[in-house]
Amino acid sequence: MKERERIVVTGLVVLMLLTWLGFTVHRSPRFAGSLWGGILGVSGAMLMLVPLAYMVVKRNGRLRNRLTKFISMRTLLAWHIYAGIVGPIMVLLHTGHKFESPLGIVLTAMTLVVVLSGFVGRYLMKQFTTEIREKKTTLNQLQEIYQRALVQLGDNPDKAHLLWHFSGFFRRVAAGLFVREVAAGAATSPTSEITSTATALRLSESIADLEYAIKTHETFKTWFAKWLKIHIVISFILYALMGLHIWAAVHFGVRWFKPSSFSKINKAGYFTAYAPIITPTVANSIRAPANAPDQFSLHYGRLFRYYWRSTAIIHGIETTVFDYAGIAREVGQQNSDYTRTVRALEEVDPDQLGGDDREKAFWINAYNFAAMKLAAENYPIPSIIDPKISSDDPWSKNAVQVGNAWYTLKEIENAILLRKFNDPRIVFAISCAAVSCPDRPREIFFADKLDEQLNSLVHGLFANPSKGLRIDRDRKILKLSWILKADQRLFEGSGDNGVVNFVLRYVSSGVSGWIDTHRSEITIEYFEHDWGLNDVALADTKPETATQS
Amino acid sequence: MTVTSKKKKSRTWFLLPTVAVGVIGLWALTPSQSSFKQASTWQRMTQPGTLSSAHASLESNCASCHTSVKGIDSSKCIVCHANNESLLQRQPTSFHANIGSCKECHIEHQGRAHRPTAMDHAALAYIGLQQLSDGEVDSENAALRSLLLNRLGRGAAPHSQISPTEAILNCSTCHANDDRHFTLFGEDCAQCHMTIKWTIPEFRHPSSQSRDCAQCHQAPPSHYMMHFKMISQKVADRPHAQVEQCNECHQTTSWPDIRGVGWYKHH
């Protein structure tokens, strides 16, 4: 078990020593900062913190007592060793693709040194200790034999006399050459009777060798005795460097961590001066959806938002406006949102719209685009009822092609929208691009929130005293939008009564309370419908903010 | 035994404050204008490579591009690089007007000689997708985004030289002016072309014996004027050649290589 651990750990250390050379095989200056590089770096660094646990537990008696009930120190040490090698390997995989910054280089070198110091202390030191122990036992045995030999030599003075010649350094060196021949084969084992002088000589030589080896090993041992301290000190230097590295990474910005700076830039409007000329926006360069109704709402939505302007006053009426001149410039231009909207509509199959809110939203948008198209194609015009569009009735003029067929505004309104969907709010949502039509927020209609959009649209109209609803409390007059009068038939109940019932649902409690209390006395009047085009160019006052996407 | 360990402990407790005091003392004694005390010296320790020559002057001022924690802030790039009219008015580069994201393509710290501009179509697609989700919460954008992501997930690309990410881009928004086929092959360049170069190595011109040149090639305007009768036909000595019969006079080497005449360029 222990032997296996040693082999595994040695293998890992060798792997680590090779890992930092990775840049010779794969060079990538940006890998360390990439997502995968980051994952490697962060998890490696976390593993490198694990060895701290062993150090703390070992030195804190109370903690040690409490913890060893659950985990033995041996297990903690194993964690220390494995985390302390696998962590650096991951970190080297994170960094080994290039070496550029001084901090990075020092950090890598320090990681290698710390792991090596740990490895040397744990395995090589142990090796020294066991070797010294083994050598010392051999030395003891040899010394015993040597003593016996001395005694025997003392009993045989003639043999001792033989040795006499070899006192002195050079003679001593040469002794092995001469004495061996005399006593060849005499001493086959140290336990046999020692009669030869050569054995005595050889014994003394071995003893000297062993003593020297033990001394060297012990010098190493004392030198390494301080290894633990060194290991701890350099580890802390490593941790400090690692802290600096992490600080630098966070301070200078981690690449895969993205705060949404983009939207801020757009709000700052750095490039809006160029935006009108340059139509290919980045989002534009993304392919359009394959499905034609989606494509229609994509391009129409973009067109709508782009040329929408906030509230302005035209002929004394407060209204949201559009930049029709801008839309007119897109007419006939290849790849403009306008042209793409027209093209998308031609691709739509009216029989495949689904019949639900999707179809309702589609036709409302189609109606509004058709009105916008009539205005844009004939721009400049003061209103949609201008003879330039149609001498008698713009609603009966073919306005837009959906699929293979051309539709007039009237057809979309009566034959499709009002016939299929029994919803009086539709007449507010479809707009003839006129000043007196309800104000639009900066979005087209969407199936998934259509109900909500229609409600807020009607609410908005009745909150506008210049065209939607105005109360004259003294004369008890309730003045309402002309649309309510024109489409009276759609509201439940007969005549004004049905209209008022409808209005009550969409006004604030103050207004509805007043209407309720004075219902029998009030006179209902209607605003005169202003057919003027809701064009920003016709505004008495410019809109406050001309936001552009 | 206990005495020695106590001694050792006291020595450690003495050593630590000494080192700390030493470091602080050293810091205090260094004159404040020495490079040791400049933030830039320390910051340079972490520099992952030199800046390109155009940005070399910013070398020691990290904060001119980096914002703490946020990293590279595009607004800092724009401080210098706004209103580059020639860039914004060219069709292929006008997408810079509202991209609002610089670091994806303009990668720095790659050495002095490196010019940090590289067209990365995948990055453009990525930024575009990002913008579809970053902008207003429009369901049309969200719908388009999910549609594109779905397409990406299927790994749909017209051929192996185009990545699915690149394939979601609409080539013609930027490259309509590059179209030598006059939209006859549609607007989706990626059906045949790749993003790293326009030429298609796999393309082999039909046989030089082919007579159907006019199916792909269009003659220059001069061929539809008197020039054709007065010069072209005479030079090639083909008085009855029709404009559509390119092969009568031209060869596949190049247009001015006139059959039987050699290299002939009139203007």
Descriptors for this entry?
heterodimer; A: 549 residues; mainly alpha; three-stranded mixed beta sheet; two-stranded antiparallel ribbon; 7 strands; 58% helix; rod-shaped; disordered C terminus; B: 267 residues; two-stranded antiparallel sheet; 9 helices; elongated
**Could you estimate the helical fraction of the residues of chain B in percent?**
25-40%
User: Main beta sheet of chain A, described?
Assistant: 3 strands, mixed
Report the radius of gyration of chain B as a whole number of Å: 32 Å
Going across the biggest sheet of chain A, name each strand in turn. 5-6-7
Low-confidence stretches of chain B: none
Give the tally of β-strands of chain B. Answer: 4
Most extensive protein-chain contact, per-chain counts: A-B, 58 and 61 residues
Order of helices and strands of chain A: HHHHHHHHHHHEEHHHEEHHHEEHHHE
Query: Tally of extended strands of chain A?
Result: 7
Report how far the terminal alpha carbons of chain B are from each other.
105 Å
What oligomeric state do the depicted chains represent?
heterodimer
Percent range for β-strand residues of chain B: under 5%
Account of the protein in words:
The complex is a heterodimer of chains A (549) and B (267). The longest helix of chain A is centred in the N-terminal third of the chain and has 54 residues, at 102-155. Chain A is built from 20 helices and seven strands. Chain A is mainly α and 549 residues long. The radius of gyration of chain A is 48 Å and the shape is rod-shaped. In chain A, helix 1 (2-19) packs parallel to helix 4, helix 1 packs across helix 5 (102-155) and helix 7 crosses helix 8 (197-225). With 267 residues, chain B is mainly α. Among the domains of chain B are: 62-118, no CATH class; 121-191, no CATH class; 213-263, no CATH class. In chain B, 36% of the residues lie in helices and 3% in strands. Chain B has helices at residues 2-29, 39-44, 74-81, 85-88, 121-134, 139-154, 164-167, 172-175, 226-236; strands at residues 66-67, 71-72, 257-258, 262-263. In chain B, the strands form two sheets. Chain B has a two-stranded antiparallel ribbon with strand order 1-2. In chain B, strands 3-4 form a two-stranded antiparallel sheet. The longest helix of chain B has 28 residues, at 2-29. Chain B is elongated. The termini of chain B are far apart. The interface between A and B is large, with 58 and 61 residues.
